[in-house]
Amino acid sequence: MLLCGVDYGSKLAGTTALCFGEPGTGQTFFRKSAKNQDADQFLLNELQLYKPGLIFLDAPLSLPGVYRGLPGCHNYFYRQADKQLKAMSPMFLGGLTARAMQLQERLLQAGLPPAYETYPSAQARQLNLPEEGYKRESASIEPVLQKVLPHYPSLRIAPESVTSWHHVDALLALISAIRFTEGKQEEYGDAAEGMILV
């Protein structure tokens, strides 16, 4: 089954990256939006073209439960999952959160599977990537990859195809999808409010 990890960026910044992978064959490839290109339409087009069976998205897919009157939810800024992972507030991310929730609806309308929310920074912490310079200068991308790839030897990735931290985060989102297929994912948050899978 083809899986997809998405690093979701600003709409026109050219920072949305996808990493497709098929663990059975090791086939792995990247796609990235262009500057001034509608990232949401680009993303939908790519997903419709390749039809992955599983999509893991680095963006909030729900609002704090207080806005839906969920019992026990009183925080107007953070969901339980955000607090557990020390992630940014969906409210602070504002437009990105709204776009991600709208994208989720568009995926369903297009007959694609719903996306699962993930958090590449948490995956990076699990793999001890900060000590390799995760998200610092671009020269650190190669040592980060050298630390990641031995854990997933089935993924065939040409290091030269990973040219930005957006590619790295898309790869980490893909790894969360792989962990999910293996039943090894870590789950944060509450199912009614919104969960993050790592």
Task: Output the keywords.
198 residues, alpha/beta, Nucleotidyltransferase, domain 5, 5-stranded mixed β-sheet, two-stranded antiparallel ribbon, 7 helices, 17% strand
Describe this structure in words.
- The protein is α/β, with parallel strands linked by helices and about 200 residues long.
- It has one domain (about 5-195): 2-Layer Sandwich (Nucleotidyltransferase, domain 5).
- It is built from 7 helices and 7 strands.
- It has helices at about 40-50, 80-85, 90-95, 95-110, 120-125, 140-150, 165-180, and strands at about 5, 15-20, 25-30, 55-60, 115, 185-190, 195.
- A hairpin with a 3-residue loop joins strand 6 (about 185-190) and strand 7.
- The mean pLDDT is about 95.
| CATH domain topology | Nucleotidyltransferase, domain 5
Largest sheet: 5 strands, mixed
Are there runs of 5+ residues with pLDDT below 50, and where?
none
The order of strands across the largest sheet is: 3-2-1-4-5
Task: Report the sheet-strand fraction.
Answer: 15-25%
| Envelope shape | globular
Work out the count of structural domains.
1
Architecture per CATH nomenclature, i.e. the level-2 architecture: 2-Layer Sandwich
- Total strands: the figure is 7
Assembly state: single chain
Class, according to the CATH hierarchy? Answer: Alpha Beta
Termini gap: 19 Å
Which structural category do the helix and sheet elements fall into?
alpha/beta
What's the tally of helices?
7
